[in-house]
What does this fold into?
Amino acid sequence: MPSQPSKDLETFDNPQPERDYSIRIRLPEFTCLCPKTGQPDFAELLLEYVPDQKCVELKALKLYIWSFRDEGAFHEDVTNRILSDLVQATEPRFMRLSAEFNVRGGVYTTVVVEHRMAGWQAPEPVRLP
It folds into this structure.
């Protein structure tokens, strides 16, 4: 197999560090295991961030997300862990991770976690007529 799951999050230099801009990454194939039953849990992750000096490299992100496939994790914990790892690797101005888990026992779960760099203010949204 050419690629293997990995906990290593590679980054690259932000090509426009003087500008606030948003990066949105959809990860529709997240999988982990229920820590109680061992059955698979499936989720779609939406990562949104305003980079500072570093951006996350997409192949490394894909392999990182893949690394959870055989781990047991509660939805709340795994979502917070992923955000913490991404914040540590990229040190963004702002980052939000939304995890929409598929139904388990008739219950859908969505977990949303955020990080904001100290002192960073979001720009005012532009409203066009």
In short: The chain has two helices and six strands. The mean pLDDT is 95. Residues 11-116 form a domain with the GTP Cyclohydrolase I, domain 2 fold (CATH 3.30.1130.10).
